[in-house]
Structures are given as C-alpha cells and as structure tokens.
Amino acid sequence: MTQINHRCAVLGKPIAHSLSPVLHMAAYRALGLDDWLYDRHEVGEADLDAFLHGLDPRWRGLSLTMPLKKTIQPYGTPANIWAQRLKVANTAVFDWSVTNSNGLPAISLYNTDVMGIVLAFGHTLESIGQPERWAGATNAVVIGNGNTAASAVAACTVMLSNDQPNKHITVAARHPGKNPQLPNIVEDEPNISYRELPIGDESLEAMRTADMVISTIPGHAGDAIAEAIGANSAFSPQGILLDVVYDPRPSALLRAWSSQGGLGIGGEEMLLWQAVLQVMLMTEGSVSNDDLMNVLEPPMRRALEEAL
C-alpha cells in the first residue's frame, strides 16, 4: 500500500453526501500524485478548533462547507480578493514553514466559489461558440439571498465587467433585504445598479430578460418558480440559467427553463470548476504544468458524471 505523505479533506456537518473526494481523488490520479489522499470529515463549528490542532505537516489543505466557510476566518488570512471581500472561504491551504502563536501553521484562505460560477458559465459559452457573449451583457438576476447568493452576486459583477453602461443586478427573494451584505458587493462596481424584488411577476420578468440568472435556493425551493415559468406560454428566456442545485438533476427549475427554450446549466458545473481551482491551490509546488486547468477538467468531469 502506498504511504500517504500529503492529505486534504472536505469538512462539514453533515458531510457524507459530499462529492469532493470523488473530484479531488480523480485529479490526484490524473496528476500522478499517488501519495496524496483526500477524504471527508464530519466537523461542526464547535469542532473546528480541535480538528485544526490535531493536524500534522502532512496536511496541505481543506475544503469547507457552510457554516465553516465563515468559522475558519479567525484562523487564516484571506489570500484572494473574494475571500477578502466576502469574508467567506471554501478553501484553506497550509504553510507548515510558518507557525503562528496559536500553534497552527500559516493558513491562506481562498474563495473559489465565485470563479467556479464564472468558469461554469464560461465553459458553456465556449461550448456553444459564444465566448465573447458577456461583452454585451447588461442584466443579471440572482434568485435567493442566503449565503450562496453572495458568491453569485460577486460572480455577476465579474461577468458584467464590460464597457456597457447602465448594468443591473437584481436579487429575487422571498424576503428581500434579509442579507445586508449583498448590496455592499455591488456598491463599488462602476455602472452596475442593484435592487431586490420579492418573488413574483416583476422578478419573473427580470429573469426572462436577463443575460444571466443564478438560482442559489436549495433543493425543491425553486419548484414554485418553475411552475410559474412552465405555466406562462409567453415566458421566453433570453439568457442562461445556472441552478446551483445538482440533486435533483436536473432541477424542476432547469427543466422549466429549458422547456421554454432557455439554456440551462446544472449545479454540478459550479461544483466541478470550484474543485478544479481548489486542486490547483492545494497542490501548488507539487505539480508543474502551464495548462493545469485543461489537464484537470476532463478526468474530474468524468469522475463526477460517474458519481452522479
């Protein structure tokens, strides 16, 4: 049996459902990292400190689910713009050459959710032969205003970084205003306005005319929106919908969107691309490849498809 010299894992509670080990282990096999292991550990907020202090220098990084994406903050330093701005990190990378006063190694914190969304859309645009489509984009809608909505709104600001004037991001939610962080993400973005609407006719029209729509609501919470879309014969979506849900697959919302002629992306695409970025961060220094993203994507995609 191969000796394990490098370890990574995903933490959360519950965590048994996580597909992260499937994705990361597929990447390690593709890269020939035979002495690397990635597994899952059930760790809640109250358990995180003890878990971190129980690690040894074999550990290279962690993937974090909510609410640990926030709980990890005092232990590390934001290392990319979205971990810094959103104060949410789904990735922790250890540097054992530096020991902090708390006895832990230096921990760099990253948010790969935002760029995972951007890459999911980008891959789709490449596949349909429209890689420059966002150059003319002016409208985005995010459905939901919970934790995932922050990364979705941030991703919309990235995709709307073009020369168009008068751009808009609309958040459609059952309880508008519940998440005060969301407007703050947009306030420093030039030429992008922000509004929140309740779920209803006005927000459905915003979805129909948007260039990009991201649904961040869990499970079957989008079924009522799906029913409203399916029941409206005049609803002809102009843009692309990403539903972060990948169970059920496809979601009712994606099915309704597609039935009205819209292009939809399943949540497995975001899951894949944020994991690709995590692998690149955690294995830095162990792999030398100028085109690592393209090396990782095919085997990780195959492994994910087989698991789903």
TrEMBL record:
<dbReference type="GO" id="GO:0005829">
    <property type="term" value="C:cytosol"/>
</dbReference>
<feature type="domain" description="Shikimate dehydrogenase substrate binding N-terminal">
    <location>
        <begin position="10"/>
        <end position="91"/>
    </location>
</feature>
<comment type="pathway">
    <text>Metabolic intermediate biosynthesis; chorismate biosynthesis; chorismate from D-erythrose 4-phosphate and phosphoenolpyruvate: step 4/7.</text>
</comment>
<dbReference type="Pfam" id="PF08501">
    <property type="entry name" value="Shikimate_dh_N"/>
</dbReference>
<keyword id="KW-0028">Amino-acid biosynthesis</keyword>
<dbReference type="GO" id="GO:0009423">
    <property type="term" value="P:chorismate biosynthetic process"/>
</dbReference>
<dbReference type="InterPro" id="IPR022893">
    <property type="entry name" value="Shikimate_DH_fam"/>
</dbReference>
<dbReference type="GO" id="GO:0004764">
    <property type="term" value="F:shikimate 3-dehydrogenase (NADP+) activity"/>
</dbReference>
<dbReference type="GO" id="GO:0019632">
    <property type="term" value="P:shikimate metabolic process"/>
</dbReference>
<dbReference type="InterPro" id="IPR036291">
    <property type="entry name" value="NAD(P)-bd_dom_sf"/>
</dbReference>
<dbReference type="GO" id="GO:0009073">
    <property type="term" value="P:aromatic amino acid family biosynthetic process"/>
</dbReference>
<dbReference type="InterPro" id="IPR046346">
    <property type="entry name" value="Aminoacid_DH-like_N_sf"/>
</dbReference>
<protein>
    <submittedName>
        <fullName>Shikimate dehydrogenase</fullName>
    </submittedName>
</protein>
<keyword id="KW-0057">Aromatic amino acid biosynthesis</keyword>
<dbReference type="GO" id="GO:0050661">
    <property type="term" value="F:NADP binding"/>
</dbReference>
<dbReference type="InterPro" id="IPR013708">
    <property type="entry name" value="Shikimate_DH-bd_N"/>
</dbReference>
